[in-house]
Amino acid sequence: MQRKLNLMLVLFSLIGGGVGFILGEVLLYQLSGEVPNAVLVGLYFGVLALCIGLGALIAELMSPRLNGASWRQRYAGASWKYIAPATLVLLFVVGLTLQFIYGLQLGGAKKVNDIVLVIDNSGSMNRTDPNNDRNEAAKRMIAQMDADKRVAIVEFNDQAAVLQPFIQVKDQAAKDSIYATLDAQKTTDGGTDIARALDEAMQHIKEQADSMRGTMVVLLSDGVSEMNLDAATSEYAAQHIAVNTIGLSLIEKAGSNLLQQIAERTGGQYYDVSEANQLSFVFQDIYEKIDNRTLITERTGPTADNTYYSILRVIAIVLIGAAIGLALGLMFDNRYLARSFAIGGAVAGLFAGLVLEAGLTGIIVLDSVVRLIADLLLAGIISVFTLVVPIKENYTLRDNTHRPSRSAGRGASEEFTEKPRDSRSHGF
């Protein structure tokens, strides 16, 4: 058993990890929302594992330092044709399974089925949203809601009132009824009392409480108000009700700061919108992130700070890393490499999981960088772990070319006492 390193394999594995990252990002942005999350994550890690595996395979074919020249002569063809593609299938299944588990409602988390829209209707809205784009944005969100969702609408200025009590959007007739209610809404005079709006929304939530249904709030305002932030948000935080906030054309820094703090304290997200005609995109983004929890994207909503999901993500990436390492060992048909790579993959998965858990923020460019770092950690640590966990070649070619005749120059006794050939299995 030896501790060895193939620098070419390290380099090619990192290149494979980079290529896998690029292909994975394409899959992520092309198929997100089009296929189930479990399938998407399975494909992401399947492609990543295949690219790392092909990089390692090419390196060992060019410079067989870990598995030996005998492997290249005997089994390289089979690895190239059959076992390498099998890594994609293996990691697809592992990624799909772990994502399915990660998508379950655990640790007291509830699936968000109730949505409360809290919409500013103060006099300043005549300037910031003269065409009532906020109502059109709300209608477009409601249009894409599933039949099991319920929606309520609270309007506010210096007062607050429930414009639409909770109603299940079970069919088009129910949606049309909500649209009519929104169309009838007129901008009023008055100031902006966000605390009163949040109190009114919470009161209605408690009146219509259903222990099996999770709730989310979308708060839109163009102003700022004096309020006790702790008093206004404590009950939302205690009940794991995320308040996503939207600041429309906010000039005063205090207004955006207030809305940001409301979102942060409740596990929601803050959106800054400069033009009212952009509201539809924001409402759509908020809705698409409901329960859109994956191992490779930001976790939002009630589970954003959930310890169960933090731990579960890291454990899942550890298992995925170990599976990638094991797949590489199978590719080379070497149980010693499989052990070294699998242990290295688990260590790499630990670091990659921590990077994903700490680094994903929902900002597209930054999240891509975080995933790149995680993918390169998986590729790099696995490939250097043969320095930590020793390995040896599985196969040794025997040179039969110049072996003398068994009867030449030997007596019967020599022939009888000849050492038996080792017939033990040298493969898996």
Automatic annotation (TrEMBL):
It comes from the Bacteria. The keyword Transmembrane applies. Residues 114-290 form the VWFA domain. The chain crosses the membrane at residues 7-29, 41-61, 82-102, 308-329, 341-366, 372-391. Residues 400-428 are annotated as: Disordered. Residues 412-428 have a biased composition (Basic and acidic residues). The keyword Nucleotide-binding does not apply. Keywords: Membrane, Transmembrane, Transmembrane helix. This is VWA domain-containing protein. It comes from Paenibacillus arenosi.
